Amino acid sequence: MLGCTVNKGQTNTEISKQVKKLLSQMTLEEKIGQMTQIDVSVITRPEHGNTDNPIDLYKLENAVLTHHVGSILNAPSAPHSKAQTTGTWRKMMQDIQAVVTKSRLKIPVLYGIDAIHGATYTENAVLFPQAINMAATFNPDLSFKEGEITARELRASGLQWNFSPVLDVGRQPLWPRLWETYGEDVHLTSVLGSAFIKGQQGDDFSAPTKVLTCLKHYVGYSFPINGKDRTPAWIGERMLREYFLPPFEAGIKAGAATVMVNSAEVDGIPGHANYHYLTTILRDELGFKGFTVSDWADIKSLYKRDKLAASEKDAVKIAVMAGIDMSMVPLDFSFYDLLLELVKSGEVPVARIDEAVSRILTVKYQAGLFNATQTPIDVAGNFATPEAQAVNRQAARESIVLAKNSNNILPLKKEANILVTGPTANLLSVLNGGWTITWQGNDEQAYPKDKLTVLNAIQQKAMGRVTHVGGTAFNDVIDVAKAVQEAQNHDVIVLCLGENTYTETAGNIGSLNLPAAQTELAKAMIATGKPVILLTVGGRPRIITEIADQAAGVILGFLPGMEGGAAIADILYGDYNPDAKLPVSYPRDTNDIVLYDHKPSEAFELNAYNPLYPFGHGLSYTQFQSSGLKLEKNQIHNNENINVSVNVKNVGPLKGKETVLLYLNDVAASVTRPGKQLKAFKKVLLEPGQTELVSFTLSPHDLSFIGVDLNREVEPGDFKVMVGNETVLLTVTE
Ligand code: BGC
Asked: 574 C-alpha to center of ligand 1: Å?
């Protein structure tokens, strides 16, 4: 818990004393400045391009000395510029710090950045698989390491606050930020998110290799009814508490220092105006002690977009009183001016300002920002190290799902002659997605020259002929006739389909169907009669049903990151035995969105859970069997833990990893319960013939649900515990 965190040498009591003392010295203007966050464009020169010093000193002084801003965010010129070097970032932070030292109270500026799969905006950073892929690894150790490595690379860039992890649960596949989530399952999201936080932030926020995390986007952002970004969700209180709140609860337990707020609305109330969520639940129930930050211009949106406020000033009042501590304004000082007026007129009490500022200052003290002697860690040994690249390669390998492998078409023989085609075959951007070098991640020219596309990686490994038919950009027209003709001279076709990069509203679509040009290319390739390996990449499960039915092999790559091309080739050629599992249900049809933990009625009589590939699906080049599922006892009280064990055996010819998934079903309850819900998982590495006894402990929390009166409870009765093909019954009594 944040409340227990100790900054090396400073206890929480000491920090609290320092905060009180500092607060007592601050003017109202200085306090409101702390609550103000501006975009870096407010302090940079317009023509800065990629110079080594983009900061305009006059503008910086206006922000820090005149408006007392507490925080700055973003990369210079985002979304269009290239990433900055570690040197530029460090210089920028020094410049900001130098101006801070000229200020009356010398309160450090906290700089925030979206480093959601590595240090996005630092040149040559290690860029990991996106969250949807990290979820497919089912490997919390990798998530922990991603957190650790990203923190180091940010600190080597002089940065100390990451707007990550996204703990929204991805239950709407059209949503253009699905890939920023850990998929559709509550438990998986909670486990991987917590591991990331622990790796990134550790227990001591002030440690030189750690970075403050920010849980986002609190709460209910990921379930827009129409699939478009920043549009309404209609989530009842029970559903909120059952599906969307638990990962945030877990993130707070893991120690997250800050929380960013939902840009959209839930049940008619915009996230930034929701007192019930921001104060009653977040503070009073979940005990969150850090500070909340608005999302981009979202206080203004209460007036400009939502018409919930009658003016921008009204919007500021509503948001601050609902529980927003810091406003990502971000392009002007309007929040500062308006809040000052509101406090002076008595419309916002000083006590609320003191509360928000105390939270912000506490986090700054805990992060060691007031420690003037603190300098960023060395770049050498901390940034883009070979060890970190190796972890990234492993994460990518463990994140790519082998979905179909008819007649063991895969792994490919190295001597095979391969035709590689399709719009995603020869681009790095499509493997990385948004928040890569730029906001939309679509500046292919800015990508590192030493990383491999799928085509490059196949070329490196193949001993046979490799021919590429395709363009140089995602939207280039592919010469289908040429591809058909070339197919005749090759043994196998690797057909690379999927999505171009995007994030947020720019990624809105009206259907999960693939663009017509891709389906036409696919049909033509299948019609050649040559075996087709379908490889898809992209942030959402686009509909591939007909193609997949006729393809010999299917690999679902999602967004495997900078090492994704190499990792895909490792799997294609059997240099890595695939072990990823789907963290989402892969739909068969664009409108048939039923998730794995659906309610009984969704699979009753004529209804069915009939995805193309279910949640948890993923093949290996070896086979596993689980057996002997056993409960420590068959009956427990509703406040007891229960141990469960199962044997898992590698019955195939190769060494490989298997993730054992444990599901639970409450057989009859006063609120309808899912047919199954993931409650525990473990990934084990097994040699051929090796058996391992895997054990789990289920807690009362695992057996609980949100009851009729909206409280979490364990109802006595029977529960099915399921692993693989086995089910055992557990009876729970009062
Ligand atoms: C996104 C956030 C992000 C913020 C700052 C917003 O548009 O919704 O996820 O952290 O911008 O870049």
From this structure: 39
